[in-house]
Amino acid sequence: MISNENVMFNATKHHLEAMIAQIHYYAQKGEIATEQFCQDLEDAGLREVYKGTVDVYTGKLSAAQIKEEVLQFVHGKNITSCTEYTKYLEAHGTIKRIGYYIMLSLSDNTEITLRLADNPQQFIHAHPGRFSPNTFRTRAQVLKTAIVAQFFAVCRQCSAKDLEIINLARVALNFSPVNDQASKIFEVLDTIATSSKLL
How far apart are CA 131 and CA 8, in angstroms? Predict the structure, then answer.
C-alpha cells in the first residue's frame, strides 16, 4: 500500500509557508546560522538548474495536506506500488524531458504535477504546476536571495528590501551583488511579506 512516505513534495523548495517557517527557525538562532541556512537551501534543490526556475505554492493547504490529496488520488486509482504508478503515468500521462507526468487539481484548484522520482522510497514526485493558481514562478537565484534577505531582516529587525540587506544575502549565497535593478527580488519579498501576515 502506498503511504505518505512514498510521496516526495519538497516543501523547502515549493511551499511558501514552509519557507517562511524555515526563515524564522534559523532567525531564532541568529546570524551565526547563516552558513547552515544557505547550505540547507542548496540541499533542498534550489540550484541553478533547468533555466534556474522554480514554482512556489502560496495557497492555504499545508505541505502535509498536499501530500494527503496526492495520496487520495493515487488510492482512488487503485495504485498500490511503484510499478503500478509507473504504468499509470505511461498510460495516462504526457511525456516531456524527464519522463511522463500528469496534472492533479487540488481542492483549492492548484495544479500539481505528478511524475516518477528516482528515489525508490519516495517515487511519487509532486510539485506545483507551471503558472497554476496559487503559485508564482521565479528564478531559483532570485528566490534564494529573497529568502536569505528576509532571514537577515528578521535577525536585524529591518527591511529586507534594503539593498544592503539584499547584497548581504547575495554575498552569503556566493552571488554577485546587485544594483538598484532588483525588481524581481522585491516582488518575491512582497509575496513573502504578504504571506507572513496571513500566517
Answer: 20
CA nearest neighbour of 101 among 115, 119, 84: 115
Structural domain of 151: 17-58+136-198
Judge if 170 and 151 occupy the same domain: yes
Residues 126, 69: one domain?
yes
CA atoms within 13 A on the CB side of 197: 5
Element (H, E) at 139: strand 135-139
Cα separation, 18 vs 33, in Å, equals 18
Which runs of consecutive H residues, i.e. helices, occur in 4-62? 11-14, 16-29, 34-43
d(CA 129, CA 94): 13
Q: What is the pLDDT of residues 141-197, one digit of tens each?
A: 999 999 999 999 999 999 999 999 999 999 999 999 998 778 999 999 999 998 876
Within this chain, do residues 124 and 67 fall inside the same structural domain, yes or no?
yes
> What is the C-alpha separation between 107 and 111, in angstroms, rounded?
10
Residue type, 114: L
